TrEMBL record:
The protein's name: Uncharacterized protein
Length: 66
């Protein structure tokens, strides 16, 4: 008889963005200063900014303009 596998719920998109930013920063840490490292850090900052914007847009205190 097959065993039912319980899938874990997928984290919200903003959590995935934050995790991706941390993963990229960790991957860039051991690199020497270079264009590749700068690009990775820039990408991590952009992802963090996207996460913050998403948090702001989905906040309960945000009101539509009149």
């Amino acid at each position: 008889m097959p065993i039912a596998q319980h899938s874990q719920p997928e984290p919200p998109p903003h959590d995935l963005l934050a995790l991706e930013a941390v993963r990229i920063r960790d991957a860039a840490k051991p690199l020497l200063p270079s264009l590749q490292r700068d690009a990775m850090l820039r990408k991590a900052r952009l992802i963090e900014t996207a996460s913050h914007i998403n948090d702001w847009l989905t906040s309960p205190g945000l009101r539509t303009p009149c």
